[in-house]
Amino acid sequence: MRSHPRSRALTAAACALTVTVAGCSGTAKSDAEADAKDTARNAETDPDTPLKKGLKLAFLPKQINNPYMTVVDKGGIEAAEEFGGEGKEVGPSDAKASSQVSYINTLTRQRQDAILLAANDPDAVCGPLKAAMKQDVKIVTYDSDAGEDCRHLFINQAGSEDIGRGLIKDMAEQLNYRGDIAILSATRNATNQNTWIKIMKDELSKPEYQDMRLVKTAYGDDVDQKSFQETQGLLTAYPDLKGIISPTTVGLAAAARYVSGSKYKGKVTLGGLGTPNQMREYIKNGTLEQFSLWDASKLGYLGAYAAAALSSGQITGKEGEKFTAGKLGEYTIGKDGEVVLGPPTVFDSGNIDDFDF
To answer: Which positions ≥6 away from 24 have C-beta within 8 Å?
Structure first.
């Protein structure tokens, strides 16, 4: 058991996009869009320009009433109030691939200055986001990206490589590098989940994990009851299962709730990403030893200031540009328009009561 947070390095994760061709002229749309984006990013900026007052920012999470997303978006709305803007949260009640599209279209018609989106499916939202960008709506993705060509900035909660590898390392240490494990993910198309899972599988392929085996990846769709049932199904189907990693706060909380009231408590190791307030009781009753996450409120806070900097002409999204995110200080835009919040924290019985979110 560790009682101190562990820092992890920063890295970027991007998704590939399909090139489409214009009907009559034969000109590749993606080339034209890339040229337009390069022109925008090469436009003159003034980092000393004050943030505009009255900016309208809309947060579009993977789904409404997801406790993690609620904390993220609340942090962004509070940031908007700091710089004299107006923030709101809108979105679907489910995390299906296409559920966010109608909201993007509506927010574009409402002439929001910026849309901040946690993408359920990068392909489903890309077209509507490009249409919004043509209307001078600034697009900032957070938590789960939509692809470089579909937004101006991506606010990444932490380096994808180190999240994925860190989750495997944490589990391996608890299992003494031996035993069957499973992954309980969110939706099949979630960009961040799939990125982390790919990295987790790559980490498991290393020689030191030769006595560990990933038996299945299950999907709870970020729905509490389905995630609960998927946990039950994994433990029934694989009676020798030693660990479950859930890189989603909904999934980890549901898995812990099931295990805490079952014969598997103390026998199956749980790990993944969760919020302290959701997981506190399960840490204290011994259902799991540790889990990881970043400060969710700060993720939304950073996203709001990034959107305001874009909308005010301080930055365009070009690599190397800098902006100040209120009390969080100065940030530099990295490769492919990525801004990284910072390293996550490992929570356990020694530090969990120091946090309230």
So the answer is: none
State both tokens at 243: 């660990």
pLDDT at residue 212 above 70?
yes
Report strand pairing: 212-219 vs 179-185: parallel
Supply the pLDDT for residue 45. Answer: 79
Rounded distance, CA 265 to CA 254, Å? 14
pLDDT digits (tens, 9 = 90+) for 45-63: 788 899 999 999 999 999 9
Question: At 207, is the secondary structure helix, strand, or coil?
Answer: helix
Query: Looking at residues 236-262, what average pLDDT do you find?
Result: 97
Q: Which two tokens stand for residue 307?
A: 């959107």
Name the nearest CA neighbour of 219 among 177, 179, 248. Answer: 248
Count of beta carbons in the 10 Å neighbourhood of residue 173: 15
pLDDT tens for residues 63-112?
A: 998 889 999 999 999 999 999 999 999 999 998 878 999 999 999 999 99
Strand 322-324, strand 330-332: pairing: antiparallel
Give the sign of the dihedral formed by CA 118, CA 122, CA 125, CA 126: positive
pLDDT for residue 113: 98
**Residues ≥6 apart with Cβ < 8 Å to 259:** 231, 235, 265, 268, 270, 287, 288
The helix or strand, by DSSP H or E, that contains position 57, with its residue range, turns out to be strand 56-60
**Distance between CA 104 and CA 118 in Å, rounded?**
12
- Rounded to 5 degrees, what are φ and ψ at 296? -60, -40
